[in-house]
Amino acid sequence: MPFGGSSDNKQPASVPIDGKVDRKKSIKLTEENAGKTYTLATCCHPIPGDDVLGYVDEKEMIIVHKRQCPVAAKLKSSFGERIVSVDWATHKVQSFVEVLEIKGIDRKGVLIQILKVISEGYGVNINKMNIETIDGIFMGRFYIYVHDTEDINNLCKNIIKIKEINSVQRIQE
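Below the sequence we write its predicted structure tokens.
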């Protein structure tokens, strides 16, 4: 549904003419307004799909944090009046680098299977990867470009289907 036609009281992330963010309304985070009316916190690296909140700074710019971020918790307790409700709009243009940590049994061809799921199954590009094996067990960190948490969840579900994989998880570095 286009913006303005919604009855759920969510507005595009925009600053009204008076320069103040309406703190009573839930604000929709769109790709078009990224960097203009909101920025993503560097402490917790939220991406579309994460459960987030907004902090309105002195310049009326909204800084988006994951709800479980320790910095967000401090801001909430110290500056509660500056906290706003925010929601993601669909994000399929912007890409974010996220880290998947994959652990499993090392055997010939397992890396190729993982790469097939990432590259062919989802068309996701890899930024870099680090893999090491100790005593027949491997641990790899794959830095991948994703659009949102749905991409990550789908990747994890399909990578874990590989017989030799014991765990797959998104990690924060």
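Residues 96-171 form a domain with the Alpha-Beta Plaits fold (CATH 3.30.70.260).
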